[in-house]
Write a structure and sequence with these properties.
By secondary structure, the chain is of the alpha+beta class. Helices cover about 25% and strands about 40% of the residues.
Length: about 80
């Protein structure tokens, strides 16, 4: 499994709708609201045999209300 963190910037007033839609997809391990440039951050485990970009695009990035995303790849837990 590949662990990635995805931050979401939402259309103003749509953060809760986006968060609910993300949870409905049942692919996030954890989802938090955040302060700063982005509104939400999700921890996602992607199967090792999947392409990260395709996996996220096909399963998350079509949710209405998402304006921008930032994906952070992880390499090793300490």
């Amino acid at each position: 499994m590949i662990c990635v963190f995805v931050q979401f910037r939402c259309t103003p007033g749509k953060t809760y709708e986006v968060a609910n839609a993300i949870y409905d997809r049942e692919i996030v391990s954890e989802l938090f609201s955040t302060s700063g440039e982005y509104d939400l951050i999700a921890k996602i485990y992607i199967p090792a045999d999947q392409d990260v970009g395709h996996y996220l695009s096909e399963r998350l990035f079509d949710i209405p209300g998402i304006m921008r995303t930032l994906t952070t790849m992880t390499f090793r837990a300490f």
